[in-house]
Each structure stands twice: as structure tokens, then as C-alpha cells.
Automatic annotation (TrEMBL):
Keywords: ATP-binding, Ligase, Magnesium, Metal-binding, Nucleotide-binding. GO terms for biological process: folic acid-containing compound biosynthetic process; tetrahydrofolate interconversion. Gene3D superfamilies: NagB/RpiA/CoA transferase-like. Belongs to the 5-formyltetrahydrofolate cyclo-ligase family. It comes from Microbacterium limosum. Its EC number is 6.3.3.2. InterPro entries: FTHF_cligase, FTHF_cligase-like_sf, NagB/RpiA_transferase-like. NCBIfam families: MTHFS_bact (TIGR02727). ATP binds at residues 9-13. One of its GO terms (molecular function) is metal ion binding. This is 5-formyltetrahydrofolate cyclo-ligase. It catalyses: (6S)-5-formyl-5,6,7,8-tetrahydrofolate + ATP = (6R)-5,10-methenyltetrahydrofolate + ADP + phosphate.
Amino acid sequence: MSHDIDNTKRALRADLRERRQTLSQAQLEQAGQGVKAQLDALVERLGARSVSCFLATSTEPDTRPFVEGAVARGIRVLLPVTRADGLLDWAVAEKDGGITEGMFGLPEPTGELLGPIAVNDVDLMIIPAAAVDESGMRLGWGRGYFDKTIGSMERCPPVYAVIFDTELLPDVPREVHDQPVTGIVTPTRTLTFAANDR
């Protein structure tokens, strides 16, 4: 059974990745502007003073303008750094902070590493996703870093996944270790799932 789910996930991720690669630079820039506006409003609504976010890849809605704006407003932003043991480390985003290519070719900060438990103090987590379904179940990219992080937190803050509008699906395949999210942020809206309101 698990093998079937794994194959279904793999096929869905491949389809979603292919769709993202067909987006033009103009569409990606517009998506990034929309996501920044939605994230700014979400941070304001929640009164978040410390957040975790990720540095988007070239086919994701760009999160860097949001991160830069948040840092400029005095909000503490933690950025993830992948580790070989399957855990995420964290570094504080800084104005003009360096970015390097981390494991799996992902953009990551070059600052001082704070350890995996640093994320326990944030008011809001903003994470990547391939898709999210209407119940709030998230389909990640298959490495399990964020599922592991969310699943291990004693007091998990609200968790919002950034996706394109077309990536909110009726249903996504799920396994026992998969973690739901509180809501999604797309270029046009922010949606909170009532069942997962942490």
C-alpha cells in the first residue's frame, strides 16, 4: 500500500514540477508580488514578531521580497538550512545576508547556525509545498524535512504553505508521517483551514 502511495506522490510531484516550469518570468514575478502582499497581511493579522520562512527556488513564488521587508520592519526571520541527518538547522535572515547553494541545490543563508530547536520560538511558520488539499494536508517535495520539524514541535505555531492558486487540490495522497498545515498563501489569497487552526 505504502509503495502505491509513494508512486502516486512521485507522479503528482513530477506533474506539478512540470507545470511550474512552464510559467513565464512575468508570471513568476507577479506571483511573488502577490505572495508578498498576502504574507505581509498575514504577519500583521497574527501580530507575528518572529517567523520562519524559506528562500524560494526559481520556480516558486518568490519569498525574498517578503523576507527583506520583514527584516527591514524589525521582524526576526529564521531561514532553514538542510542537514545530512534529515533535520533542519536555522539561521537569522539579515539585511544583505549571503545566500549559498545548500543540499539538493536549494538556496540557503550563510549566517550562523542556531540549531534545529531555534524554530520553536517563532510565532508563524511559512513553508514550501508542491500542493495542499482542501483538508489542509500538504504534499511536500519528498525529503520530509518540514514534516519532521512540524511533527516534533511541542507547541507548533500556525503553519502556512506557499503554493500557486492551481495547487490547492481536492485531495493529495498521504502517509502517516505527513503533517497538515494551518493554511495556505497563494498569489491571490490566504486560506485558513478550520480543522487545522493551531
